[in-house]
Write a structure and sequence with these properties.
With about 500 residues, the chain is of the alpha+beta class. The protein contains 15 helices and 23 strands. Helix 2 packs across helix 11 and helix 3 packs across helix 9. The structure holds adenosine-5'-triphosphate (ATP).
Length: about 500
């Protein structure tokens, strides 16, 4: 068993086997951007699908949504991103490296929590001991300054009607602004959730550790709306539900934990926040955030009610956000356009929200790291990925033992039959041992081998990736066998 997986081993396996490549590699690469190769695209899609299946498909109280990335600029004023979504940074006077104040360390320990600007300000008073990660010089920094994380672009071709818009830094706001639409177009009743998976963009100051922190990434977010007073119960529910999701997909319990935020870490509107953390093998081998689960109270819907009231002022100022202040909340806000009417109790209120917010790329990295293993067969080293079958990019490989005696014909027929139901792979090239090891490295849980006996008694060998056990089953039962073992 590999005791401590090194990130370099994962990066090299990912490149060698086509899981993940550096973006624009033939042009020297683009920092912090990555492309998923043939195996990686399947793996990431399986992670995404597993989240969607457990959160939307299997539940009666969650519906899905797929919003556009570009949104009305006022959305980001109302959400607080225009004014607050910034990291406090300093520049090293010696080497000009810019660093997040909350990422600076005064010893070899690395600290990667995302700290709100307010909290980072406290750290900023104490820069004397901090080390520049660029040149290791101590305490030689400029005054801290805020650095806005949202990417900006222009929409519209004509100068008159073009406007500055933002690439969304989270998918959640698309859910809040569609709350009314979903209520009006479906039969959902509180408590219920709206889920979405999609790309988000943040101009992160420091990126690092492969796909752990990138400037373009995918999020899977759920906003679960409930009555005030029921929020704590649902917060507990989602903490447990989300923790178990990772464990059920094979993450070892010893590498996973829930960490409650300290009160000084909490965003001002949040009543509670917990991170699902994974013990990643980089930095100092430290616990790092995989997902945040927050009790956001009624903050977001109330902010968007204020945003809607600000629309006139936005037109009057020709969309110049720097001239606009968000309008005060109506005293009657509980009856506002984003409120909810409970038919049974005849009460109207602005719902509370529990938000589990996960990163698809970050959890894909955790699944890769956790599945990575090395062992020895007959004195030979073997690299393997012990993926949970539902995440494995290839579910079964079909292999004729040799390329003669009718074996390829039987194997091709089986492969053609299976590929409509599972992601399968056909391979007839090279020694069987080598072919098995290639599949182990790709994380394929089952290899089906057609050999001399197949023609005699219509049976095949099923080889198991993890136990190396081989069993004979009938050719005609392979499909049913895979359905049962893969749980699909
Ligand atoms: P961090 O502390 O790592 O900066 P955060 O607390 O800002 O993250 P959230 O805003 O809570 O992150 O985002 C929810 C999830 O989205 C994170 O737990 C993570 O899985 C994912 N995520 C956020 N930023 C990035 C990024 N730059 N690259 C990859 N995934 C990200």
């Amino acid at each position: 068993m590999a005791e401590f997986t090194k990130l370099e081993d994962i990066v090299s396996l990912c490149k060698r086997r086509g899981f993940i490549f550096q973006s624009s590699e033939i042009y020297g690469g683009l920092a912090s951007c990555y492309d998923y190769g043939p195996l990686g695209a399947e793996l990431k899609r399986n992670v995404r699908n597993a989240w969607w299946k457990s959160t939307v498909q299997m539940r009666d109280d969650v519906v899905g949504l797929d919003c556009s990335i570009f949104m009305h600029p006022l959305v980001w004023k109302a959400s607080g991103h225009i004014d607050k979504f910034a990291d406090l940074i300093v520049e090293c006077k010696k080497c000009n490296t810019r660093s997040r104040v909350d990422h600076l360390v005064d010893n070899a320990e690395e600290h990667t929590e995302h700290v709100p600007v307010e909290t980072a300000e406290t750290d900023a008073n104490n820069l004397g001991n901090k080390i520049c990660p660029g040149c290791n010089k101590i305490g030689n920094f400029t005054e801290p300054m805020p650095f806005r994380l949202m990417f900006e672009t222009q929409m519209g071709a004509n100068i008159d009607d073009s406007m500055k818009i933002f690439l969304r830094p989270e998918t959640a706001q698309g859910i809040f602004v569609n709350f009314r639409n979903v209520l009006d177009s479906t039969r959902v009743k509180i408590p219920f959730g709206i889920a979405q998976i999609g790309k988000s963009f943040r101009n992160e100051v420091t990126t690092k550790a492969f796909i752990f922190r990138t400037r373009e990434f995918e999020q899977a977010e759920l906003e679960f709306f409930c009555a005030p007073g029921e929020d704590e119960k649902w917060y507990e529910h989602w903490k447990e539900f989300r923790f178990n999701w990772y464990v059920n997909l094979g993450i070892k319990k010893k590498n996973l934990r829930l960490r409650d935020h300290d009160s000084d870490e909490l965003a001002h509107y949040a009543k509670g926040c917990v991170d699902v953390e994974y013990k990643f093998p980089f930095g100092s081998g430290d616990w790092q955030e995989l997902e945040g689960i927050a009790n956001r109270t009624d903050f977001d819907l109330r902010q968007h009610q204020r945003g809607m009231r600000t629309l006139n002022s936005w037109y009057e100022n020709k969309g110049d956000l720097s001239k606009i202040e968000l309008k005060e909340e109506s005293p009657d806000y509980k009856k506002g356009p984003l409120s909810y009417f409970n038919e049974e109790t005849k009460e109207r209120f602005v719902p509370y929200v529990i938000e589990p917010s996960a990163g698809i790329d970050r959890s894909t990295l955790a699944f890769l790291v956790d599945a990575y293993d090395e062992d020895e067969i007959n004195g030979q080293k073997r690299n393997l990925l012990r993926f949970h079958p539902s995440l494995a990019p290839i579910k079964a490989a079909v292999l004729p033992l040799v390329r003669k005696d009718g074996m390829p014909e039987i194997a091709t027929k089986l492969y053609d039959d299976l590929k409509g139901s599972f992601a399968c792979f056909y391979d007839q090239k090279g020694a069987i041992g080598r072919r098995y090891r290639r599949q182990d490295e790709a994380g394929t849980p089952f290899c089906i081998t057609i050999d001399g006996q197949t023609k005699e008694d219509e049976t095949v060998t099923v080889r198991h990736r993890d136990s190396l056990e081989q069993e004979r089953i009938s050719l005609s039962s392979v499909k049913g066998y895979l359905f049962e073992k893969l749980g699909v």
